[in-house]
Amino acid sequence: MLVITSLGVASIIIAIYVSSSMAMNKAVSSKLVNSILYLGSMSFFAGLVWTALGLYEVLDVIQRMGEVSQSALAGGLKAACISTIWGLFLFFIAYVCWYLLRLKRID
After folding, report:
1. CA gap 88, 97 in Å, rounded
2. Which of 18, 33, 66, 73 is most buried, with most CB under 10 Å away?
3. Measured between alpha carbons, how far is 52 from 32 in angstroms, rounded to an integer?
4. What whole-number distance in Å separates Cα of residue 46 and Cα of residue 2?
5. Which residues contact 31 (CB under 8 A, 6 or more apart)?
6. Running DSSP on this structure, what letter comes out for residue 25?
7. How far is it, in rounded angstroms, from Cα 48 to Cα 51?
8. Residue 66 backbone class (left: φ over 0; alpha: ψ -120 to 50; beta: rest)
9. Burial code of 60-78, b = ≥16 C-beta within 10 A, e = fewer?
């Protein structure tokens, strides 16, 4: 989760920097604006990787235990999906920031 959060926070920090630079009428490169979207999407994809690792661990425990109750299985699957939800949330924030800054840059 630290990697996911770091990527998402980095994209938000860059968005704040770009926004403040635009407010002071400084030139901002398109690569810097696009890095917001890139880092946000990387947080989402990192969340997918962590979900796959979490599902692997859940299935490994099930294999070792033999039989597992449905509530234990649901709890494990729910815990494995948290990283994807968090990565998607950070990606959404980064996407909105990127889109608004891109519109502001065009004007």
Report:
1. 14
2. 18
3. 31
4. 10
5. none
6. T
7. 5
8. left
9. eeeeeeeeeeeeeeeebee
Per-residue pLDDT tens for 55-64? Answer: 898 888 888 9
**Angle at which helices 2-23 and 30-65 cross, to 10°:** 170
Residues 6+ apart with CB under 8 A from 16: none
pTM for the model stands at 0.85
28: containing domain:
2-106
Q: Report the number of distinct structural domains present in the chain.
A: 1
Rounded-to-integer distance, Cα 20 and Cα 24, Å: 6
Residues present in the chain in total: 107
Query: What residues contact residue 44 under an 8 Å CB cut-off, 6+ apart?
Result: 84, 87, 88, 90, 91
Per-residue CA distances from 33 to 56, 70, 76 (Å): 36, 46, 38
Taking a C-beta distance cutoff of 8 angstroms, is the pair 38, 90 a contact? no
